[in-house]
Amino acid sequence: MKDIIITIDGHGGCGKSTTAKAVAKALGYMYIDSGGMYRAVTLYFQENYIQLTNLKDIKKALAAIDIQFICNPTTETNEIYLNRLNVEEKIRAMDITEKVSQVSAIQAVRDTMVHLQQKLGKDKRIVMDGRDGGTTVFPHADLKIFMTADIDVRAERRQKELMEKDQLIDFDEVKKSLLKRDLMDKTREVSPLRKAEDAIELDTTHMLFHEQVEEVLNLATPKIIEMKQQNSAT
Ligand code: DC
Questions:
Q1: Where are the alpha helices (DSSP H) in 169-208?
Q2: What spatial distance separates the first Cα and last Cα of the chain, rounded to whole Å?
Q3: Is the pLDDT of residue 1 over 60?
């Protein structure tokens, strides 16, 4: 096996997903948007009126959910499909964002998604962004990054991202929503957001996008070379 698993965890708005996508593209790896998976489940639950307190219905719904990543040939990046429909845009809506932390804290939801993520990563060659990639999903990942950034910078980036999708949201509202999700993600009982002991912290507050990507690629390259050497020695 010559390839590696890269996990990029951290708070929302640090630039995890844009960085992970660019790194995956540069290495020819598969990009897994684990947050997108929790968002897709949240969308399904919303559209099918699933009560978050009804475990029986939750389990039935999870069995009916099919999540796939399919590469968009124009952007050359993976997009998420829920039961064969592209939901890449729908899952970024503010009402889904507001509910996703609650849905992602449900043990049955996490068990199902973690199992799927591990299946997607069985042949390595993946870059996954999320909250628990380095701690729970791939504790033996070859390179673990933990991204951080100042809250105002994160809110600014998230607001810009939403604006590009024609969603005009007040800065304070975006900031409040990020802080609320940070708290829920960090304090939930099941697989909370935390830095893995062997993760490398990357503070992107003062970094330009291309610098973030270069930094991760600079960290990944020796790991890939090391893996190739190990492979040729055996
Ligand atoms: O990265 P994002 O904003 O798309 O993530 C959406 C939510 O999903 C976030 O509030 C926390 C949750 N999440 C999670 O619990 N575990 C992951 N591995 C990824 C996301």
A1: 171-187
A2: 10
A3: no
Structure tokens at 96: 């889904």
Q: What are phi and psi of 124, to 5 degrees?
A: 60, -145
pTM above 0.90, yes or no: yes
- Residue pair 8/133 in contact (Cβ under 8 Å)? The answer is yes
* Over residues 72-79, mean pLDDT: 90
> What's the CATH code, domain 5-224?
3.40.50.300
As a whole number of Å, the CA-based R_g of the chain is 17
Closest residue by Cα to atom 15, ligand 1, is 104
How many Å lie between the centroid of ligand 1 and the Cα of residue 2?
A: 29
- pLDDT digits 0-9 by tens, 136-188: 999 999 999 999 999 999 999 999 988 998 888 899 999 999 999 899 889 98
Residue 3 near ligand 1, beta carbon < 6 Å: no
Given a contact cutoff of 8 angstroms between Cβ atoms, the answer to whether 69 and 30 are in contact is yes
